[in-house]
Write a structure and sequence with these properties.
The chain has about 375 residues and is an alpha+beta fold. The protein contains twelve helices and 18 strands. The chain has a six-stranded mixed sheet. Strands 11-12-17-15-14-18 form a six-stranded antiparallel β-barrel. A hairpin with a 2-residue loop joins strand 14 and strand 15 (about 290-300). About 45% of the residues are buried. The protein binds guanosine-5'-triphosphate and magnesium ion. The site of magnesium ion has 3 residues, from helix 6. Guanosine-5'-triphosphate binds near residues 90, 92, 95 and 225. This is Translation initiation factor IF-2. It is found in: Cytoplasm. It comes from Pseudobacteriovorax antillogorgiicola.
C-alpha cells in the first residue's frame, strides 16, 4: 500500500511531529517519526487537521477523499460554472470573450468601468457564469499539475473557415485529461465559403461528436464579429452546468487559484484570483503559493469594491507582500504566523522536489496514486 513517514506527514500538515505522534496514539497507531503510517491513517489524520491547517492541505485536499466528506458535511450551495475558452490561434477566443463581456456591459452594467482582470463573470437571467480568460494551453496544464484545476467546462473554439488545427487537437486532449466536458463554439459563421459539415466531420474524427449528429457534445454556431449565437452559447454552458450539479461550501475559509498577478506601481502586488470554495474577505490573512499577505482591498471584474466574495467569483486583490505565480493556490489562513509556516513548508517542498528528495517524492506518490 501507499505509506508516508510520520515526519513527512507532520511537515505536510505543518504540525510538530510530537503532536502528530500523540494524535496517532489516540487513534491507536504507535509510530515514531521515521516510521511509516498507511494511507488510510494519513487521510484520517489529515482530515482532522482540515480546519486548523486547511491551507497546507489544499493540494492534498483536492485529491484526498476526506476532503469531499468534509465539504459535503459543510453547507453546500449551488455555484456558477467556471469556463475556460480554448482553441487554435486566431480562431476567435478573445473575440468571443470580448463579445460576451461587451454584450453584458451594454445590457445593463453601464456606468461600471470594465477593466480587464483576466477573469470575469457574465450574468444571464440571474444566473452567473465565470470565465477565465484564455490562459493558453501551457498555463492550463501548469495549473492542473499544481492541483489548481479551476475549470468546470471548456468552450472549444473552432473557426468554421479553418476547421480542426493542431492546437484544437491539443485543447481536446487537455480537456479530456482533465475530465472536463467540452462545448464546441463553431465561430466565424459569418464568413463566406465555409463548410460546416467538414468541421463537424473533423471533430468527430477526434472523438467530439455533435448532438445533431447523434453524439453527446453541444455545438453552438457563433459569430463573435456579428454577435450572433452568443446567447445560445451561454445557454449551452448553463445547461451543461446543470448536468454537472456544481456546488461549493461557502461557509468555510476561502480557497482559490491565482489566475494572473503583477506588480502595480501604486498598489503593489495585484493578483486576479478565482475563488473555488469558501469565502474570501477583506482583512483575511492569505498565502498564495509561497507569498504571504493580508487582503487590503478586493474588486470584481467591473472594478467594484467588494468586502467578501464566494465560490466561482473572480476577484482582484491587493495586499500580498510579493507577486505570486499564475496557477498558485491561494488560501485563507488563521494569521500571519500560519501564513509564513505554510509558505515555508511550500518552499521546502519545492526545494525537495527540485533536488529529488524523498518528502516531495512521497507527497507526489501519495497524490498521484489515490
Ligand atoms: P489568439 O489569442 O492569438 O490565439 O487568437 P484568438 O483565438 O483569441 O482570436 P481573436 O479573437 O484574436 O481573433 C482572430 C481574428 O479573427 C481577428 O482578426 C478577429 O477579428 C477575427 N474574428 C474573430 N471572430 C470572428 C468572427 O466571428 N467572424 C469573422 N469574420 N472574424 C472573426
Ligand atoms: Mg486571443
Amino acid at each position: 500500500g501507499h505509506e508516508i513517514t510520520v515526519g513527512d506527514l507532520a511537515r505536510q500538515l505543518s504540525v510538530k511531529a510530537g503532536e502528530l505522534i500523540k494524535k496517532l496514539m489516540a487513534e491507536g497507531v504507535m509510530a515514531t517519526i521515521n516510521q511509516n503510517v498507511d494511507f488510510e491513517t494519513a487521510t484520517l489524520i489529515a482530515s482532522e487537521y482540515k480546519y486548523e491547517v486547511k491551507s497546507n492541505l489544499v493540494s492534498l485536499d483536492d485529491i484526498l477523499s476526506s476532503k469531499k466528506d468534509a465539504y459535503e458535511s459543510a453547507d453546500q450551495q449551488e455555484r456558477p460554472p467556471i469556463v475556460t475558452i480554448m482553441g487554435h490561434v486566431d480562431h476567435g477566443k478573445t473575440s468571443i470573450l470580448d463579445a460576451l463581456r461587451k454584450a453584458k456591459v451594454a445590457a445593463g452594467e453601464a456606468g461600471g468601468i470594465t477593466q480587464h482582470i483576466g477573469a470575469y463573470s457574465v450574468e444571464k437571467d440571474g444566473r452567473k457564469v465565470a470565465f477565465l480568460d484564455t490562459p493558453g494551453h501551457e498555463a492550463f496544464s501548469a495549473m492542473r499539475s499544481r492541483g489548481a484545476q479551476v475549470t468546470d467546462i471548456v468552450i472549444l473554439v473552432v473557426a468554421a473557415d479553418d476547421g480542426v488545427m493542431p492546437q484544437t487537437v491539443e485543447a481536446i486532449s487537455h480537456a479530456k485529461d482533465a475530465g472536463v466536458p467540452i462545448i464546441v463554439a463553431v465561430n466565424k459563421i459569418d464568413k463566406p465559403n465555409i463548410n460546416l459539415d467538414r468541421v463537424y466531420t473533423e471533430l468527430t474524427e477526434h472523438g467530439i461528436q455533435s448532438e445533431e449528429w447523434g453524439g453527446d457534445t453541444q455545438f453552438v454556431k457563433v459569430s463573435a464579429l456579428q454577435g450572433t449565437g452568443l446567447d445560445d452559447l451561454i445557454e449551452a454552458v448553463l445547461l451543461q452546468s446543470e448536468i454537472l450539479e456544481l456546488t461549493a461550501a461557502t461557509d468555510v475559509p476561502g480557497t482559490g487559484a491565482v489566475v494572473e498577478a503583477h506588480l502595480d506601481k501604486g498598489r503593489g502586488p495585484v493578483a486576479t484570483v478565482m475563488i473555488r470554495e469558501g469565502t474570501l474577505r477583506v482583512g483575511d490573512h492569505v498565502v498564495a503559493g509561497t507569498k504571504v499577505g493580508r487582503v487590503r482591498a478586493m474588486t470584481n471584474h467591473l472594478g467594484k469594491r467588494l468586502k467578501s466574495a464566494g465560490p466561482s467569483t473572480p476577484v482582484e486583490i491587493v495586499g500580498l507582500s510579493e507577486v505570486p505565480m499564475a496557477g498558485d493556490t491561494i488560501d485563507v489562513v488563521e494569521g500571519e504566523r500560519q501564513a509564513r509556516e505554510v509558505a515555508a513548508w511550500r518552499e521546502e517542498q519545492a526545494a525537495a522536489m527540485a533536488s529529488g528528495k524523498s518528502s516531495a517524492a512521497s507527497l507526489e506518490e501519495l497524490l498521484s496514486k489515490v
